[in-house]
Design goal:
- This protein is α/β, with parallel strands linked by helices and 217 residues long.
- The protein folds into 2 domains: 8-97 and 140-196, GTP cyclohydrolase II (Rossmann fold), CATH 3.40.50; 99-134, no CATH class.
- It contains 8 helices and 7 strands; from the N terminus they run E-E-E-E-H-H-E-H-H-H-H-E-H-E-H.
- The protein has helices spanning 60-64, 72-86, 98-101, 104-117, 123-127, 138-146, 159-167, 187-197; strands at 11-18, 21-29, 36-42, 51-57, 89-94, 152-155, 172-176.
- Strands 1-2-3-5-4-6-7 form a 7-stranded mixed β-sheet, with helices on both faces.
- Strand 1 and strand 2 form a beta hairpin.
- The two termini are 33 Å apart.
- The structure holds zinc ion (ZN).
- InterPro entries: GTP_cyclohydro_II (IPR032677), RibA (IPR000926), RibA-like_sf (IPR036144).
- GO terms for molecular function: GTP binding; GTP cyclohydrolase II activity; zinc ion binding.
- Keywords: GTP-binding, Hydrolase, Metal-binding, Nucleotide-binding, Riboflavin biosynthesis, Zinc.
- Pathway: Cofactor biosynthesis; riboflavin biosynthesis; 5-amino-6-(D-ribitylamino)uracil from GTP: step 1/4.
- One of its GO terms (cellular component) is cytosol.
């Protein structure tokens, strides 16, 4: 465990009324990397066990602009919908995670290699001399600790994310799949995540589009 507790100087919170309902919006600053993140808290989660949690990596193209080459935006929507329909939960939105941590400009460079050379999401990064995944989940662990969440049901398809949170002292009671249907635009990306990063993506078995022509994000 390497957690320094979040300091009150680095946190501000208020109610946030959204189309889905009213969340508690907890903005916090990570002194280690300088990023500012946000936890959206819905319902009662303090001192609770088995809290439904999504730890979401920022993806401007997917989350804001609805890009279809990855499934980030759809996962964000589905996670918030599920938290509201269950009546409680936390979504932690982590900045500085573009392209699994390489940054936005580098991510778009990988898109060029994917579109022009047919490389997948991993090879397009390593061809540019960039790492495949540098994401730090420490800030998510620190805010979940601050919120006094006792254990989490993590909405994720990525076993590594569970191991990372556990290594930062978070008790993960269960993993809840967060599956987005495959389509011609995201199937290359999803397939690379399944076959090369070990994500659990059973919905790919049902897909019958024109892959392998799609490259992915
Ligand atoms: Zn994305």
């Amino acid at each position: 465990m390497d957690e320094q507790a979040l300091s009150h100087e680095d946190i501000a919170e208020s109610d946030l009324v959204t189309r889905r309902g009213t969340f508690r919006a907890v903005a916090f600053r990570d002194r280690l990397h300088g990023h500012e993140h946000m936890a959206l808290v819905f319902g009662k989660t303090r001192m609770r066990e088995n809290v439904l949690v999504r730890v979401h990596s920022e993806c401007m193209t997917g989350d804001i602009f609805g890009a279809m080459r990855c499934e980030c935006g759809e996962q964000l929507d589905a996670a918030l919908d599920r938290i509201v329909s269950e009546g409680s939960g936390v979504l932690v939105y982590l900045r500085g995670h573009e392209g699994r941590g390489i940054g936005l400009v580098a991510k778009v460079r990988t898109h060029v290699l994917q579109d022009e050379k047919g490389l997948d999401t991993l090879d397009s990064a390593t061809t540019l001399g960039l790492p495949v995944d540098t994401r730090d989940y420490g800030p998510a662990a620190r805010v979940l600790t601050y919120l006094r969440v006792q254990s989490v049901r993590l909405m994720s398809n990525n076993p590594d994310k569970i191991r990372a949170l556990e290594s930062h002292g978070i008790a993960v009671a269960a993993r809840v799949p967060l599956l987005v249907p495959a389509n011609d635009h995201n199937v290359g990306y999803l397939t690379a995540k399944r076959d090369r990063l070990g994500h659990d993506l059973p919905q790919l078995d049902l897909f019958s589009g024109d892959y392998p022509h799609a490259a992915g994000g």
